[in-house]
TrEMBL record:
Residues 1-29 form the signal peptide. It comes from the Eukaryota. This is Stress up-regulated Nod 19 protein. The keyword Signal applies. PANTHER family: STRESS UP-REGULATED NOD 19 PROTEIN. It comes from Gossypium mustelinum (Cotton). InterPro entries: Stress_up-reg_Nod19.
Length: 412
C-alpha cells in the first residue's frame, strides 16, 4: 500500500509540473530560446608593422553580425598570422574603434574614406561630442584584454533596425586600429605617448605645422610615421591583425535597448541659445597633456594631476554600464551626478608580468560598473561631473580621460 501511495504521489507531482510549465506565458517559456547568445570571431584586414613603425588604419565594411540584433559584447586583441597574442611591449595597441555607417547601396564595399560626403552617413552613438569626435560604438586601447564589455540582460545595443536605416542606404561597420611597434625603440614610453621629438615630426598628417607647445599626441604618431630606434637595431616586419569576438542576440520585445554616451574630460563645451532654446556646443579635444609636478612646483600636491569638467545630459535614463579609458600614468576616473552622488568610478589595472594581458607597467584593464537596475538614474538636462586623475611625477603627452556609459531610457 505504501509503495502504491509513493507511485501515486510521484505521478501527481510530474503531472502538476507539466501543467505549470504549459501555463507559463509564452515570453517566459521561450525566454532562453529567444535570448540565445550567438558568438562570432573575426579578424581585421592585415596591417604590417616593422620596428618603430605606426599603423593607423580605417577598415571599411568589416566582417560583422548582420540583421536586426542586439549587441552584447565586443572584445579584441592584436594577433599574428597564427593567432598568437602579441604583447604590448612589442606592439602597443593605442586604440581600436568600431564605427557604424550608412552607405549608399552599391557602394558598401568601397573604402569609405574615398566616398563623396553624400554617399555615406555617420551612424554615431548618442553623443555628446561634436560630429567626427568619439563617434564609436565600442572602443578600447591597451586595456582591451582585461576590461569587461558584457552588457547585462535584458539590455543590448540595438542595430540593424530597418526602420532606422535611411532609404537607399545599407548599414555597414568600420574599424579604426592604431598600433605602434616598439621593438628596438630608444624610448618605449615616449613612443607610446607619441612624443613628437622621437618621431621627428613637425607637421600634422595634413601638412599643418604643429603648435610649438605641442610636445606629443595623436598628431605626431599618424599612419606611416616611425619612432626612433636604438643605433644598429634591425628587426623584421610582421603581418598583424585585430582579432575581435562579438556576441549578440536576435532582437525581440524582451530586450531593452541602451543608448551610448561618451564623455571627454578635455571637452571645452558651452551653452548657446538659438531659435529652439538653449543647446550645448561641444568641442572634445580627445587628448591632453599632463605636466610634471616638479616642473610646475606642485610636488606638495602628491603629484596628482586632477582634471574635471561639467557636462549636461541631453537625455535621461538609468545607468546600465560604465567604464573609463586612460593611458599609462592614469590613476582612475569617476563620474558624478549634480548632487555629488557617485554614478561610476573606473580604476586602471596595471600589468606585473611578461605575458600578453599582464605586461608590466602597462594598463591592461579598467574596472567597470554594473549598477543594480534602477539605482543610478540620470535626469534629462542633469549636469554631470567627470574627473580624470593622472600621476604627474613626470610629464605625460597625449593622455586621454574618456568615460563610456550605457543608459536605458526605461527599466526592464
Amino acid at each position: 500500500m505504501l509503495r502504491e501511495m509513493k507511485t501515486f504521489n510521484l505521478g501527481w507531482l510530474l503531472f502538476a509540473a507539466v501543467l505549470l510549465i504549459s501555463a507559463l506565458p509564452f515570453s517566459q517559456a521561450s525566454r532562453s530560446k529567444q535570448h540565445k547568445v550567438k558568438t562570432g570571431v573575426f579578424r581585421s584586414p592585415q596591417f604590417v608593422l616593422g620596428p618603430g613603425s605606426v599603423a593607423n588604419k580605417l577598415f571599411s565594411n568589416i566582417d560583422f553580425p548582420r540583421g536586426h540584433i542586439a549587441l552584447k559584447s565586443f572584445d579584441a586583441e592584436v594577433v599574428d598570422e597564427s593567432g598568437n597574442p602579441i604583447p604590448l611591449y612589442d606592439t602597443y595597441l593605442h586604440h581600436w574603434l568600431v564605427l557604424k555607417f550608412y552607405v549608399r547601396k552599391g557602394l558598401e564595399n568601397q573604402d569609405i574614406s574615398k566616398l563623396n560626403n553624400s554617399d555615406y552617413i555617420s551612424g554615431r552613438n548618442s553623443g555628446i561630442c561634436q560630429d567626427g569626435a568619439l563617434d564609436q560604438f565600442f572602443g578600447l586601447g591597451s586595456e582591451t584584454r582585461r576590461t569587461k564589455t558584457r552588457i547585462p540582460d535584458p539590455y543590448g545595443i540595438e542595430i540593424g533596425n530597418p526602420t532606422k536605416i535611411p532609404s537607399g542606404f545599407v548599414e555597414t561597420w568600420g574599424l579604426n586600429v592604431h598600433a605602434i611597434d616598439t621593438r628596438g625603440v630608444e624610448d618605449r614610453t615616449g613612443c607610446t605617448e607619441c612624443r613628437c621629438n622621437l618621431y621627428n615630426v613637425t607637421k600634422e598628417e595634413d601638412g599643418t605645422p604643429l603648435s610649438p607647445n605641442y610636445d606629443g599626441g595623436l598628431s605626431c604618431c599618424y599612419d606611416g610615421t616611425k619612432c626612433r630606434l636604438k643605433d644598429g637595431f634591425i628587426g623584421i616586419e610582421r603581418n598583424l591583425y585585430l582579432q575581435y569576438t562579438v556576441k549578440w542576440i536576435d532582437m525581440n520585445s524582451l530586450i531593452v535597448p541602451v543608448n551610448i554616451y561618451i564623455f571627454d574630460v578635455s571637452d571645452t563645451w558651452k551653452k548657446s541659445r538659438n531659435s529652439t532654446g538653449i543647446n550645448s556646443e561641444h568641442n572634445c579635444q580627445v587628448e591632453y597633456q599632463v605636466e610634471s609636478c616638479r616642473a610646475t612646483g606642485s610636488a606638495n600636491d602628491k603629484c596628482i594631476d586632477a582634471k574635471s569638467v561639467s557636462l549636461e545630459m541631453p537625455f535621461g535614463g538609468y545607468l546600465v554600464y560604465g567604464v573609463a579609458h586612460q593611458h599609462a600614468g592614469g590613476t582612475g576616473s569617476a563620474l558624478y551626478g549634480k548632487d555629488g552622488r557617485s554614478l561610476c568610478s573606473s580604476i586602471p589595472i596595471y600589468g606585473t608580468g611578461e605575458e600578453a594581458g599582464n605586461e608590466n607597467g602597462y594598463i591592461v584593464g579598467m574596472s567597470t560598473c554594473y549598477p543594480k537596475p534602477g539605482t543610478k538614474k540620470i535626469s534629462k538636462g542633469e549636469t554631470l561631473i567627470l574627473e580624470s586623475n593622472y600621476s604627474s611625477i613626470k610629464q605625460h603627452t597625449g593622455v586621454m580621460g574618456l568615460f563610456y556609459i550605457l543608459v536605458a531610457e526605461t527599466l526592464a
